[in-house]
Design goal:
Helices cover 39% and strands 19% of the residues. The chain is of the alpha/beta class and 508 residues long. A hairpin with a 4-residue loop joins β18 and β19. It is globular and about 65 Å long.
Length: 508
């Protein structure tokens, strides 16, 4: 257990996230209690100009610095100098506090982190911003190392991806420059949420419901979703930059309902004129030839077929009710039907997998040669069964190492796939990242837009979020949609009203 005692909570989340990176899986208490590994005490002075940190610790860490008895309590006195802060400049103050804490924790544990003090989910956005400010690649690498203690490898990866993103986004319109602009004519992308899956995977925390329970009520869900889509087309226009249908697993819908959805989308929006039209086929056990024919017939340009692993024992363990052979069969079926932009998702750090298991997966993927590949580091979130049922799964071994991440990157490049987007999540195995790789011309623009927050994205369906980018003011405004499907169906008009308020529309 880790203690955090602050007399001002303005930076509690930033402090806690960095502590979580060094001590994954620990619980937190906001007082000093018996059994804690360490307790951070942070005090802001009355003038709000100085912040002082003190770390009190017990047990295994005391000998790392002084060589004293592990039972003896010690304080890191030499890191106790007050930090000058400006509470009117949140970014600068946050970075100062995190830098000091990082130095303390690195000295305490004897190890650093590949991303240094960075805990945010969009590190490439920093590099992209600096590029647009005119900073050269090498300068950005130095900046990320000096400001955040990022490793050489992570800094270079950020810069490479940011340069690629800059080119890919050059043809996509950005958002309106002011919150007072009456309509989002400058461009938007559309996300459609289908929150249903054949089963729920062990690690999953997304909004998703067993499709078997909802098949009899799918007409009600689609009717509510179609009301939202009509509003978006009327309010934002028929020409989204990208259309992305995700979930859940959209292909868990029956072929008939999938066809109804595709027909609605293509009649309501200019999907053919979008930069891309993506549908996550996702689970191989949800894919049939008939469903792929529906997607192809309505002009879908990009699909995902996501095995997560090509080891059958792991698939069985995590609740993926399909076989490795089914992954291959569905992939070749899609190729046969003419899909020339197929993505595959993998997860590093799945329970009980080691480096050789991941190597086997990469060899199998290499033989399939997808057009893009997204490599995720396992992130165990609060809603996942791996977290909510800890006692059941406590003995599962989860391995995530830099060597494994490097291996997946080498395989991707051998396939001619280049990194084009990157994001991070809390509680990731090994404190690493998720990286998307793609062949030239096959990168997913929507993935870049959602990660780098370069354009408004309007979400429709249960559990979706609409993000309005106010670029002239450097801020994001959000409207959430309820996650519960029954609530969504009953309250869809309220969800539309939330979007209206987001875009500054007044009732007539």
């Amino acid at each position: 257990m880790i203690g955090i005692i602050l007399n001002d909570n303005a930076y509690e989340q930033d402090i806690r996230e960095l502590l979580m990176a060094f001590f994954p899986g620990r619980s937190f208490a906001y007082e000093m209690v018996a059994g804690q590994e360490l307790c951070l005490i942070g005090k802001l002075d009355e003038s709000r100009r100085w912040f002082r940190m003190q770390v009190v610790f017990w047990g295994e860490y005391s000998h790392l610095i002084w060589g004293n008895s592990p039972a003896e309590q010690r304080e890191l006195d030499h890191f106790d100098e007050p930090i000058p802060v400006d509470y009117d400049n949140r970014t600068e103050t946050k970075n100062k506090i995190k830098r000091r804490l990082y130095v303390i924790l690195k000295a305490l544990t004897g190890r650093g982190l590949p991303w240094g003090s960075l805990t945010g989910i969009r590190p490439a956005k920093i590099a992209l911003t600096k590029l647009r400010e005119g900073m050269a690649g090498e300068e950005i690498c130095r900046y990320m190392k000096e400001m955040y203690f990022a490793s050489d490898e992570k800094a270079r990866l950020c810069v490479e991806i940011a340069m690629r993103e800059q080119k890919l986004l050059s043809c996509i319109p950005s958002e309106a420059t002011s919150a007072q602009d009456s309509r989002a004519k400058a461009g938007y992308s559309l996300y459609v949420g289908i929150p249903f899956c054949p089963t729920t995977c062990l690690y999953c925390s997304f909004t998703s419901y067993p499709i078997a329970k909802w098949e009899g009520h799918m007409e009600e869900y689609l009717a509510a979703l179609f009301r939202e889509l009509d509003y978006v087309a009327d309010r934002a226009g028929r020409h989204p930059s990208c259309v992305y249908v995700g979930g859940g697993t959209p292909t868990s819908l029956s072929a008939r309902h999938l066809q109804r959805l595709m027909e609605k989308l293509t009649k309501t929006f200019d999907c053919a004129g979008a930069a891309e039209f993506t549908v996550e086929a996702g689970r191989p056990d949800s894919i049939t030839r008939e469903k792929l024919e529906v997607l192809k017939g309505y002009g879908v340009t990009r699909i995902s077929i996501n095995p997560q692993t090509m080891n059958q024992k792991t698939l069985d363990l995590i609740g993926r009710r399909h076989t490795v052979e089914e992954v291959k069969e569905r992939f070749f079926m899609a190729r046969e039907l003419g899909f020339d932009n197929i993505n595959m998702d993998l997860i590093v750090g799945l329970p009980e997998e080691n480096e050789e298991d991941v190597r086997h997966t990469m060899e199998e993927i290499k033989a399939l040669a997808p057009d893009s590949l997204t490599v995720h580091s396992l992130a165990i979130k609060r809603a996942a069964r791996l977290n909510t049922m800890k006692e059941v799964y406590k003995d599962y071994r989860i391995v995530g190492t830099q060597e494994i991440i490097d291996m997946t990157a080498r395989y991707a490049r051998e396939l001619g796939l280049l990194p084009y987007y990157l994001y991070r999540q809390k509680n990731m195995a090994g404190n690493f990242e998720n990286v998307g790789y793609a062949k030239p011309g096959k990168a997913c623009i929507y993935n870049i837009l959602i990660m780098e927050e370069q354009q408004t994205i309007i979400g429709c369906g249960a559990g979706t979020t609409t993000k309005r980018v106010i670029s002239g003011e450097n801020r994001i405004e959000r409207a959430e949609t309820v996650k519960n499907v029954e609530q969504y169906i009953e309250r869809v008009d309220e969800m539309i009203e939330r979007k209206k308020r987001l875009f500054g529309e007044k009732d007539n």
